[in-house]
Amino acid sequence: MIEPRKKELLEKAIEMALGGDQQMLRLLLNRLLPTPPKDDMVDIALTADSPAKKSDQIIEALNNQDLTPADAMNIMKTLAFQAKIYDTTEVRQLIEEIKDVIAKKHLI
Q1: Of 13, 14, 80, 97, which residue is most buried, by most CB within 10 angstroms?
Q2: Under a CB-based contact definition with an 8 Å cutoff, are residues 87 and 69 in contact?
Q3: What range defines the domain where residue 89 resides?
């Protein structure tokens, strides 16, 4: 029912918006323009070499009001996930090394 009149309806909506209909203008702009990101990007340089020291830098930035509490929490969560990934990788490497040592001892 609408499909055959789609072009006509769009033209009418544009005409209404250009004629000063604020609601129609808002509707069209909301449909046409991309949605802005909900969060602003945070620019913080974490120069420390360990997750613990990086978390200290985050807390310092929070104390200096360079970060909001929400931003600090999100960065800390990301840092925690990163540390977990590193830990898991390190544990897997150690397990492989232990397997190699055990295999060599059984072969000798």
Answers
A1: 13
A2: no
A3: 51-107
